[in-house]
Write a structure and sequence with these properties.
Elements (H helix, E strand, L loop, with lengths): L2 H33 L2 H17 L6 H11 L7 H36 L6 H20 L6 H4 L3 H24 L5 H24 L14 H36 L1 H10 L1 H26 L3 H37 L8 H27 L6 H18 L4 H28 L6 H23 L5 H27 L4
Helix pairs in contact: 1-7, 1-11, 2-5, 2-9, 2-10, 3-4, 3-9, 4-5, 4-9, 5-8, 7-8, 9-10, 9-14, 9-15, 11-12, 11-13, 12-13, 12-16, 12-17, 13-15, 13-16, 14-15, 15-16
Length: 490
């Protein structure tokens, strides 16, 4: 298959994966709230965020291995390709061991540091320890699926994610039915990890994406140092992302308690889903764009990157406006009235969707070029400022204050900062950089004005009607843009 076929195959599989994720979320949240208290559900959401932080021990090596394999993908049985595989394998096993030790430490000291209620302390310790062990298992097996990205077969990873989610949901539901309580999440996570680890490995063997044995490939110290340098930059960006997104549940728990954390976790699911759905476009194009860059087709690479970014920002605005009008009602309907959210939070969630998608586009291009040095500190700076603002406000503004701080820091630090750096590093004819920056500001202001105006309408019917009129008007322009962008080969 050519790059265009790989792109569409990955994009379609990615949306099926997102649909499976949506179904998982739509079913698992009401199911969990039916069998668990809000405190128990909030505890699981907290454990997941802790696991996300501990996965920083990956040190960005997953992305680094995939990117270095892309440089040698045309010689699967070559020495350089095999050296990348062997070097990554050793490092992943070391990381898995360190992750298991970190999970034990978190189980020992986490309850006191996070203020976990006494009756939930034992449950928290067991859940966090075994959840981290499951993460460590997945990390140890990750090298088996590393070649998929380099060979533009991310569609296989998406199908394995679907199998992961379906099996996790089935096992978790069975656990709830059998009375396992919070431990049902662990059973589901373990079942899902097996699928997402074994299926990609089987596909790599069948497609012969892994080198043959006895080729003399080995752990290479110099290569490891180079890969670690790229991984360090990825780690900086991941840490910043966790400080911005992952720390929100932890900060809400610390400032307002587990029950509020459960509400916040449910209400912001639509934000995470929106980012995932829209991010699929550039994510699916990334392997093909990387190949363009590696082979020296720089003008085509730049032009296609800006096309994909413009489309992503337009779609984010479309979805953000819809969230501003209907998210609160959707959350109430979804949870059967068990979770009550506020309209101001909806406006901030919609604006955050636009800003987050734009900043990810700008920063994503540097991963394709293999040079993250110019943006590695942007996400970290954003995260540090965000956490500092929230702690400094000491709960002022409630959860809306936390969302507002996240929006301001993302837009001014990662959004505008990333746009400036991308315009310098990825030049293209036709002044696409300036056009994209103007488009971002226009879409953001338009959505913000709409979010402010929609507050004056108390009727859901009025809000939905006005929103539909606005979205239909924007939809014609969006369809034309999608046809012109997606109709061309990567």
């Amino acid at each position: 298959m050519g790059r265009q076929n790989f792109f569409f195959s990955s994009l379609i599989a990615g949306y099926f994966s997102s649909a499976a994720n949506l179904a998982y979320t739509a079913i698992s949240v009401p199911l969990a709230l039916h069998y668990l208290s809000k405190e128990e559900f909030g505890l699981w959401a907290l454990v997941v965020q802790i696991g996300g932080y501990l996965m920083l021990l990956d040190l960005g090596m997953s992305s680094s291995v995939a990117r270095f394999l892309a440089d040698h993908k045309d010689e699967v049985n070559g020495r350089s390709y095999g050296d990348v595989i062997e070097t990554g394998k050793v490092f992943f096993w070391i990381q898995a061991l360190l992750l298991a030790v970190a999970g034990l430490a978190c189980a020992a000291w986490g309850p006191k540091l996070l203020g976990i209620p006494g009756e939930l302390t034992t449950v928290f310790q067991r859940v966090v320890f075994f959840y981290v062990l499951i993460l460590a298992l997945g990390l140890a097996l990750r090298i088996k699926s590393a070649p998929l990205w380099a060979h533009q077969r991310t569609d296989i990873g998406h199908w394995s994610t679907m199998a992961n989610l379906c099996s996790a949901l089935g096992v978790m539901g069975l656990g709830f039915f059998l009375g396992w309580g919070t431990y049902s999440f662990l059973a589901g996570a373990f079942a899902g990890t097996l699928w997402s680890s074994l299926l990609p490995w089987a596909a790599c063997r069948r497609l012969k994406l892994l080198p043959e044995r006895n080729l003399g490939s080995r752990f290479c110290r110099k290569l490891f140092v180079r890969m670690l340098g790229f991984g360090r930059d990825v780690l900086m960006m991941q840490l910043g992302g966790l400080l911005c997104a992952g720390s929100q549940i932890i900060l809400v728990t610390k400032l307002f308690g587990l029950e509020t954390a459960a509400v916040f976790s449910v209400a912001t699911k639509t934000l995470a889903m929106g980012q995932q759905l829209i991010g699929r476009i550039l994510e699916s194009a990334a392997p093909g764009l990387t190949e363009l860059f590696v082979r020296g087709e720089r003008d085509r690479f730049s032009f296609r990157f800006y096309q994909m970014s413009t489309l992503s920002v337009a779609l984010a605005t479309f979805a953000g406006i819809a969230l501003m009008a209907t998210n609160r009602e959707f959350i109430g309907l979804w949870t059967h009235g068990k979770v009550v959210w506020n309209r101001g939070g909806d406006v901030l969630i919609g604006a955050l969707l636009i800003s987050n998608v734009a900043s990810r586009c700008f920063q994503g291009v540097f991963g394709m070029t293999g040079d993250l040095a110019k943006v590695r500190y942007l996400s970290l700076l954003e995260g540090v400022i965000f956490v500092g603002c929230v702690l400094g406000l000491k709960g002022w503004g409630g959860v809306c204050g936390i969302l507002g701080a996240a929006l301001a820091t993302n837009f001014f630090v990662s959004g505008l900062g990333g746009c400036f750096q991308a315009s310098r590093v990825v030049p293209v004819r036709g002044n696409w950089q300036t056009k994209l920056a103007r488009l971002l500001v226009f879409y953001f202001l338009m959505a913000g004005a709409y979010g402010w105006a929609i507050q004056s309408f108390s009727s859901l019917l009025a809000r939905v009607t006005i929103t539909l009129i606005l979205l239909i008007g924007c939809g014609f322009s969006l369809v034309r843009k999608m046809r012109s962008t997606l109709g061309q080969a990567i």
